[in-house]
Structures are given as C-alpha cells and as structure tokens.
Amino acid sequence: MGDALSLTDYFVIASGRNTRQVRAIAEEIEEQLTLLGGPKPLRTEGRDEYRWLLMDYGSFVVHVFEEEARAYYDLDRLWGDLPRVQRAEPIERSKAG
User: Fold this and answer.
1) CA distances from 69 to 28, 38, 64, 65 (A)
2) 23: how many CB neighbours lie within 10 A of its CB?
3) Which domains, and CATH codes, for the chain?
4) CB burial class (10 A; 0-12, 13-18, 19+) of residue 91?
5) 41 vs 24: CA distance, rounded Å
6) What is the pLDDT, as a whole number, of residue 88?
7) In angstroms, rounded to a whole number, what is the distance separating the alpha carbons of residues 32 and 18?
8) Cβ distance 70 to 25 under 8 Å?
9) pLDDT (tens digit per residue) in 32-49
10) Less packed terminus of the chain by CB within 10 Å, N or C?
C-alpha cells in the first residue's frame, strides 16, 4: 500500500458472517498481537455496530467486515491491482494443562 497510499503500508481484510463473528475476529486479532508483543491499535472505529471494524495500527490497518458490508464496499476490488502478501501459517496456541 505504501506507494499507492501514504497512510499505511498494509491492509488486512477479513470478514465474518455476522456481527458476533466480526467482533470475535477483531478481539482475536488484538489478543494475538498482544501475545506476540505487537502494537496496540492507534485508533479503532466501528465498535458500536460491528458491521465494519477498522483497527489502525499505523504501519498496517485491519478491516473486519460483516459479509454484506464487505461485498458493498468491495475493498478487494478497489485495491486489487496492488501486490498481495501471502499470510503466514497460523501460530498454534499453547494448550493449558
């Protein structure tokens, strides 16, 4: 995103089937970043309805959409000509014994 948009280097776009899933995805992102010693969001928008949640971490921005909102705003198409970064394999949670 850096050359195309000076506000951030990366967009992460995810979606859930409903507002409950959107909230759970956003909470899991925050939890995993905390566990990994990552940054806290500089600002978050959309917590009032959880249809489209934006979490701004500075060098990357996370968008978590309800499926209908993701289709409507279609950020995938809007930014589709930019290079994509393959996601890393998920980190396994340690199991409490």
Assistant:
1) 20, 28, 10, 6
2) 16
3) 10-78 (3.30.460.10)
4) exposed
5) 16
6) 64
7) 21
8) no
9) 999 999 999 999 999 999
10) C
